[in-house]
Amino acid sequence: MQISQEFDFFVIGGGSGGLAAAKQAASYGAKVGLADFVKPSPQGTKWGLGGTCVNVGCIPKKLMHFAAMAGELRKDQIEAGWIDTDIQGKHDWNRMTENVQNHIKKLNFSYKNQLNKKEVKYYNKLAELEKSNIVKLIDKDGGIEFIKSKYILIAVGGRPSYPENIPEIEKKVITSDDLFWLPNNPGKTLIVGASYVALECGGFLNGLGYDTTIMVRSILLRGFDQEIAGKIEDYMMENGIKFIKEAIPINIELTENNKRLVTWTQKGIQHSDIFDTVIIATGRKSDTNKLNLEQIGVKTNKNGKIICTIDDRTSIMNIYAIGDCVEGRPELTPTAIKCGQLLANRLFGGQKKMMCYQFVPTTIFTPLEYGCIGYSEEEAINKFTQNEIIIYHSIFKPLEWNLLESHYAQACMIKLIVLVSTRRVIGLHYLGPNAGEIVQGYAIAMKLGATKEQFDSTIGIHPTCSEEILTLTAIKGIDNPQKEGC
Amino acid sequence: MKIVFRYSYDLFVIGGGSGGLASSKAAAQLGKKVALADFVVPSPNGQTWGVGGTCVNVGCIPKKMFHIAAQLGDYRQDQGRVGWSGINENGSHDWNKMVQVVSNMILRLNRMHENNLKIAGVQYINSLAKLINPNTIELTDQKGEKSIVTAEKIIVSVGARPKLYEGLNPQSYITSDDLFWMRRPPGKSLIIGGSYVALECAGFLNGLGYDTQVLVRSKLLRKFDQQYAQLVGQYMVEKGVKFHYGCTPTKIDGKIVTWKDKNGKESSEKFDTVLMAISRQANTQNLGLENVGIQIDENQKIIVNKYDQTNCPNIYAVGDCVSGKLELTPTAIMAGRKLIKRLYQGSSDIMDYRDVATTIFTPLEYSCIGLSEERAIEKYGQDNLKIFENVFKPVTWNISARNPSICQGKLIVRKDTDQIIGFHYIGPEAAEVTQGFAVAIRMGATKADFDSTVGIHPSAAEEMVQMKKFR
């Protein structure tokens, strides 16, 4: 075995976590290499450097969500006096994907540039562990080389998983890996799943004008605040999305004209319908099965996720892992990035700081956006009991919704979960426009232990939706959450 | 024999705007006998409106609605590129339709406020109030009929009105009092002033398709961070607004405006609308302040102590008419409520005006908390500060050709304590981005606290917790 290069730090996976760790390590003068290789999806889709977020996650998702919202705005534009906006105008899928993909390709290129500038050696090859400090790299033609590294970082992320009960399902459905790169519009679409991926995709597809159905086995957004999940569902239904609840698909067949005949059971009864596209969004699994982890002794759980200590170390001394492929970590870009940077700081910068996963803010970009920090109502009651918490709630109407009479006045909601003993805000939930922008600042305050009184004594910016978070008086269980306007 | 003198009211509030409404309702809810007098003296152009004050009728609310209308037009350049057909990027705007929608909304709010006063138990009197002596008020109604009432305590919350330009006929121009109710499109417009009112109005007028120019005596947003004031102006220029710096108007003759620059050179141009937005003046004339000896400052604003009390012990003042306070709705509301708690519930809680977040709703919005860079340097010295900056491009700005380097954030940090003493953000949804940060900054958040907070991705707000470059 010939070692072609030796590194201080070798990163497997060029996504959010991997890129951040590689660049940070290089900035300390470490000799860094990074291997990124996208195994094509069963439908043949592949993409460039940057990982899930850039190529098949956050970025295209947000741009398509924006595209759908841009369509919704047409009604408001007309009410606000704009002439020559045709509410019946159709959406051109290819025009949108062309623009989105151009941006993604710019990002792929920019990441390559950044690695170059930082002198990180980039391999567009599939990596496998050969020994605990040797990595085997295989290029697209099967050519092999070996590199040696003092430290190895596994940051391979995850890929969509498929239900196991339908034969040859991978040939008949697409996933989020394929959706953003579809060469033709998806048409009448069925989305199977209840995750935020399912709802975000269903949300924008409906907004773009496609007949959209979402099939859900049990509850929506498991793990998230269920009251808010219910309101997200209501809003999506008001906007024309069909939900098939308590149902699982049992068969999918390709029809003569290349459509999909889906058969499902719902409460023991079988139904079927024909769709142009079926999207599976039932979950994601760690992309670790071809890494040769078992041989090397890197422990994983039964879902393939790598088991790590709090300082990101695997069961093998010099091998680390971060991001979506690690057990117990939130599957988010910003946490992977930060975790990667802090790891590099510890390995090469003499620093000690570790990643803190408390009060990490997240946002779901459904048609009505949802931003949250901390405990959901269910989690809070579970951990603290009903008596130890107070929930403040409010239903409000954004000012801009006054343009259009038809805007659903009870759709937006805010909840603050407060500990009775300390008055600390331990859960913040905002359902309304611009959730991502709004929630960010509160995350700092909550990490600092902000109390309800500290929220209330902060003076609002007027007129905004965010200021509503500082003026909650109604208590759940006692008061009606509905408020009057300004 | 004991003679008991009863006042007509426990509390009489003069002015039904943000501060007046909040304090009158708070007092009534405590069981006090409260009346509120609100009367809008028509503008020189005859414009008047209902109860609710500046914010509801001629300020925050209509301003934001018109700003939103202009921004909706701005999205047209993205809509086509994200695939929508049938969007005419150059389609014109129907001003009257927008005014109709917004004024209907304002009328609903007027009715709502009247109703809320009623529900709270406040007697609403649509009359102009004048102080006769510390406990006596003369009320003049719409027909000119007078009546006298007495009150144990009085709160003055008369707010402010646009300042008129000395030497120019007030009817040769309009102000923000008139703009939101104009029943004809403004056409080619000249805005006089460099205040946030001037820039917000110029911004949406330009966005709605009108040829817009701005006459600025010295600089834009004089009391604000100048680096960000420049960026606000720069974006407006990119959008087609024309600025004339160092210029003051000398004559308005029919539709022709003459102005001179700092060298004395005169220019003239014809405009359909001239909007005066130089500053605002406390609405304290004809209030009878001299009858009770209440002191005012050089801008006619009422001087109060830290308990919002004037030098006449039973008379208080809150809101825009008060000297040395911020001219904002949320501070007026909070000040009014805290005042009532102090007057009737034994509270000693006073207003803290530090680190109040504000937003300017210009075409590219600008929000700030704390000190401008100028004030920070003045207060702490350049050597004691670390200034972090980040230029960013919002993800959705990649769809159409937008300026990639105008959105930015700035954090002014004290070297000794690592505390954030100035937060500045210019970019989309500035107000929504900034609000949450205000809670943290009031708690004394440090740069380290910001840095250890995980970002929400993708968002513009996350840029504020990921700043590395500093000077």
Automatic annotation (TrEMBL), chain A:
Which EC numbers characterise this protein's activity in its record?
Answer: 1.8.1.9
Q: Which family does it belong to?
A: Belongs to the class-I pyridine nucleotide-disulfide oxidoreductase family.
The molecule here is called Thioredoxin reductase
One of the record's GO molecular function terms: thioredoxin-disulfide reductase (NADPH) activity
Q: Which cofactor does it need?
A: FAD
Q: Which BP terms does GO give this entry?
A: cell redox homeostasis; cellular response to oxidative stress; glutathione metabolic process
Q: Where is the FAD/NAD(P)-binding domain?
A: 8-339
Q: Which GO terms describe its cellular component?
A: cytosol; mitochondrion
Q: Which UniProt keywords apply?
A: Disulfide bond, FAD, Flavoprotein, NADP, Oxidoreductase, Redox-active center
NCBIfam families attached to this UniProt entry: TGR
User: Which residue ranges does the record assign to the Pyridine nucleotide-disulphide oxidoreductase dimerisation domain?
Assistant: 360-471
The UniProt function text for this chain reads: Catalyzes the transfer of electrons from NADPH to thioredoxins TRX1, TRX2 and TRX3, which in turn act as reductants of disulfide containing proteins. Able to reduce nitroglutathione (GSNO), a compound involved in the transport of nitric oxide (NO); however, TRX1 is more efficient in reducing GSNO. Has no catalytic activity towards oxidized glutathione (GSSG).
UniProtKB/TrEMBL annotation, chain B:
Does Manganese appear among the keywords?
no
Keyword tags: Disulfide bond, FAD, Flavoprotein, NADP, Oxidoreductase, Redox-active center
| Cellular component annotations (GO), alphabetically ordered | cytosol; mitochondrion
User: Which EC numbers does the record give?
Assistant: 1.8.1.9
GO terms (molecular function) for this protein are: flavin adenine dinucleotide binding; glutathione-disulfide reductase (NADPH) activity; thioredoxin-disulfide reductase (NADPH) activity
Q: What residue stretches are annotated with the FAD/NAD(P)-binding domain?
A: 9-336
Residues of the signal sequence? Answer: none
Q: What does this protein do?
A: Catalyzes the transfer of electrons from NADPH to thioredoxins TRX1, TRX2 and TRX3, which in turn act as reductants of disulfide containing proteins. Able to reduce nitroglutathione (GSNO), a compound involved in the transport of nitric oxide (NO); however, TRX1 is more efficient in reducing GSNO. Has no catalytic activity towards oxidized glutathione (GSSG).
- Please give the family membership noted in the entry: Belongs to the class-I pyridine nucleotide-disulfide oxidoreductase family.
Q: What is this protein called?
A: Thioredoxin reductase
Q: Which organism is it from?
A: Paramecium primaurelia
Classification of source organism: Eukaryota, Sar, Alveolata, Ciliophora, Intramacronucleata
